[in-house]
Structure formats: structure tokens, C-alpha cells
Design a protein that fits this description.
The structure is a homodimer. By secondary structure, chain A is α/β, with parallel strands linked by helices. Chain A has 2 domains: 4-114, 3-Layer(aba) Sandwich (Cobalt-precorrin-4 Transmethylase, domain 1), CATH 3.40.1010; 119-247, 2-Layer Sandwich (Methyltransferase, Cobalt-precorrin-4 Transmethylase, Domain 2). Chain A is built from 8 helices and 10 strands. In chain A, the strands form 2 sheets. The first copy, chain A, has a 5-stranded parallel β-sheet with strand order 3-2-4-1-5, with helices on both faces. A 5-stranded mixed β-sheet of chain A has the order 6-7-10-8-9, sandwiched between helices. In chain A, helix 3 runs parallel beside helix 4. The N and C termini of chain A lie far apart (69 Å). Residues 238-248 of chain A have low confidence and may be disordered. At the A-B interface, helix 1, helix 4, strand 5, helix 5 and strand 6 of A face helix 1, helix 4, strand 5, helix 5 and strand 6 of B.
Chain lengths: 248, 248
């Protein structure tokens, strides 16, 4: 009998930010294929006889290519296993879920998405601040600093305007290029930027700075991946809030 | 002794999409102030002696003004109670959390944000599809069709371009205006639109249509609030996918 696959969001860091549905899928799993950034406590929710397979990706180390992950989860399900593919955050946000959904469906395997709390929501909690602030920001843009190899870098300036809170995933290395692109496009250098690394874990660190000082403040504050950067551009920005009062 | 306040995300609909942390806060609560759209099963997780207060807002009915909510949660915490303010989805996304954070802090009350799965993640699960699709969409825009009274309507065309998946909250009533604005701005009429109402509940309904036919398809498919609309504009859109092959 064919098994099944669940693409499960493990949430943003802390084990207790898992959903009840994710917990149930983990408890029912015969095998769990898990990414890096998964709290070891989450794997302990599984039955003792559940197989646990680490698919990478440690920073700087080799990780499984996506094709290999697709092949092994499909093979395990075809062998009758209840497969959990455990991803940090929400599997639908920069989670390569499409490839795994397509692979399962091509083999007639039942596949389910189990949503999770995405990293931006957790980083906002770490800052004690809402993502959107009524009257100030009316849309949230979630973008990544790391595109598909061969794709051009993001068009940073097109992502932000008055009313935007921009949450950037995997953007630590792109901070300098982003600053240059935004300043060249006329985005105020005094724009407020906050960065949180390893949100909701004991290793959490956060900084508050301006666009002008972003890369340096990240270095001083030891903000490294996994991190979320927030850029906030209020709708009714007053000159004192947004525009420098003196030339820089 | 002063109590505390937790602004807790109840998740997008189904009770099992609550996080473990949210469950723990609900179990520890002395009083729960809850919004509409909260699954009654979630309130049953509370202790029998926990007070439950409904703050609205039923569609079309009177609900508590935000100031009243702020006043009562602060008063309950000052009276020594562990207060849970239960909101659907993630409290940081269009959740009026800022007002409640500010009110608590102005009174020196400890206040915590407990993140939740936001409605867009759940609606994507209902569609069996990821929010972002590598190589197709590289940023997710979460916006609302309902602005602060007195504010101008959203600048729809500024929210979407090739590479965007746009998730719209509370936008059912704005669908006609949005279509007109987007078509006038040159957004392809064949753009794919999906809408999901009451995602992850037994009453869930979904449609797939194009921008050209959106309001009519929503009517036929009985898509009403609470609903999420997704507009997807792939990066490398081929003419056959996006541009009409014949004049309409």
C-alpha cells in the first residue's frame, strides 16, 4: 500500500511554535526528512522507532540537492511509509514545496501541506512589535536576498515605498548591495531598519539602525543567518522621521 | 500584583493550527478576550473557570471599538489577571496589535506577542500550492483591501509586478475596484487569480479564475469574507500564460 507525504512547517525556531497539526503528523511519521534549523526538541516528539534523516543544509556544507530529496521522499512513500518532510518556518514561503508537491503528484502519492509560523512573524515577536502598523504600514512584502542561481539580483527599490514593511529572508550577505541600490533609487538613508537573527531561540540577537548604517550595524551586532531584516517606510512619514534634516 | 497580557494568534481557522505556545497561554489564562473567527474548540482548551469575553466583530454587527478593548485588557491585567487577547491568524498581521502593545506598556504591564499561522499560509494549504514558487515568484505581498477610514484606497497597481504573488486580506468587497485599477494600469487580464474563503474549516470554498473574471467568479463560487485572494504574476511569464493571444 502506498504511504503518504506531509510537508510540515516546523515554525520559526522555538519548539513550542509548532502547530498541533504538525505535532500530530510528526507523531504519526514512519520517517522524517528534516532540514537544518530544526530544533532537536521537535524531533523528540516523534516515536522512538521513527527514522530521522538529515537532508542538510548546514551553512557552507554540502546539502542534498532538491532532486535527491524529491526522489527519496517519493521512494519512501511508495514503500508504504508515512513520510514527514520537516521544513523550518512555513513550507509555502521560500520552502521549495512546489518541487516536492509535483514529485509526489507525478507518482500518485497523497501529499499534504501543513502550514507553519513563518520567520517574519517570529522576528516581529522578538522585537515586541507588530509586522503591520495601522495608519503607518498597510502592506507587508516578504522577499528573499538569495535568488535562484543565474537569476538577476532582486530589484530592491521596487519592493519598498511609503506604506511598506519589507521583511527580507536570507538577505544578510546582500545587505551592502541592497543599501547601495536603495540609496541610489532615492530611498531615505534614515529609513528605520531592524534585524533579528535566530529569533525565538536562546541565541536570538536584534539590532535597530538606519539604512545608512545597516551593514556596519549588522557586523557590530553579530547578525548572521538565519536572520530577518525589516525595513519600514511609514505612509505619512514626517520629514523628521524619514528625511535627513541635514545633508549627510 | 499586576497580571500580564498575551496577544495570542489563534491561527487561520482550524483549531489544530494553533501553536503549542498559544495552547499553553490559553490554558494559563484567567480571562480570554476573543475576536470573531475563533474556532469554539480553541476556547474549550481553556480551564473551566476561565472567563471568556467576546469582543466582536460579527460582520455587519457592532463590535467593540479598539479603545474599549485596550481599556478592558489593561484593567484586567492591573487587577492581577493573566489576560489572553485571542486574535485570528497572526496578531502581527493586520491585527491592531500596536494599539494593545502601547496601552499595556503605558501602564507598565508585561505584554507578550505569541505568533500564529497567518491566513495566507492556510489558504495556500487549501489550494495545495506553495505561496512562493521558485523561478516564478520571488516575493510575497500581503495587503489588505480595507484601509483605515479616511485613508485613500490601496494603490493596487503598485502592489504587483512580474515575480509577485499578492495575497489580499479583507478584499472581497474591493474586487471590482481592484480589477478596474489593475486593468487600467496594464496588468494582464489573463493574470491567474485564486480565492479561498474560510480556509481550513469545513466551510472552505475555493475558485481559480483570471483577473478579467474575478468578481463574477467570486459571486458564482460564493466566496465571501473571511477570504484570501491570490494574484500571481510569474517572473518569466510566457505570452501564452499571461498575455491574451487575441484581443478581448
Amino acid at each position: 500500500m502506498t504511504g503518504s507525504i506531509a510537508l510540515v512547517g516546523a515554525g520559526p525556531g522555538a519548539a513550542d511554535l509548532l502547530t498541533l497539526r504538525a505535532l500530530n503528523r510528526i507523531k504519526a511519521a514512519d520517517v522524517i526528512y528534516y532540514d537544518r534549523l530544526i530544533d532537536p526538541q521537535i524531533l523528540e516528539f516523534a516515536r522512538p522507532d521513527t527514522e530521522r534523516v538529515f537532508t542538510g543544509k548546514h551553512v557552507g556544507a554540502h546539502s542534498w540537492p532538491q532532486e535527491r530529496i524529491c526522489t527519496v521522499i517519493v521512494a519512501a512513500a511508495l514503500a508504504g511509509k508515512r513520510v514527514v518532510r520537516l521544513k523550518s518556518g512555513d513550507p509555502g514561503v521560500f520552502g521549495r514545496a512546489t518541487e516536492e508537491l509535483d514529485a509526489a503528484r507525478a507518482h500518485g502519492i497523497e501529499i499534504e501541506l501543513v502550514p507553519g509560523v513563518t520567520a517574519a512573524s517570529a522576528a516581529a515577536v522578538s522585537l515586541g512589535r507588530a509586522l503591520t502598523e495601522r495608519g503607518q504600514t498597510d502592506h507587508l512584502v516578504i522577499a528573499t536576498g538569495t535568488c535562484k542561481p543565474g537569476d538577476p539580483p532582486p530589484d530592491w527599490a521596487a519592493l519598498i515605498r511609503p506604506g511598506t514593511v519589507l521583511a527580507l529572508y536570507m538577505a544578510v550577505r546582500a545587505a551592502r548591495d541592497m543599501r547601495a541600490a536603495l540609496l541610489a533609487a532615492g530611498v531615505p538613508s534614515s529609513l528605520e531598519v531592524q534585524a533579528v537573527s535566530e529569533a525565538t531561540t536562546p541565541r536570538e540577537r536584534a539590532i535597530t539602525t538606519t539604512l545608512a548604517h545597516l551593514p556596519e550595524a549588522m557586523e557590530t551586532g553579530r547578525i548572521s543567518n538565519p536572520a530577518i531584516l525589516f525595513l519600514r517606510w511609514p505612509k505619512q512619514a514626517q520629514p523628521a522621521q524619514i528625511l535627513p534634516l541635514v545633508a549627510e
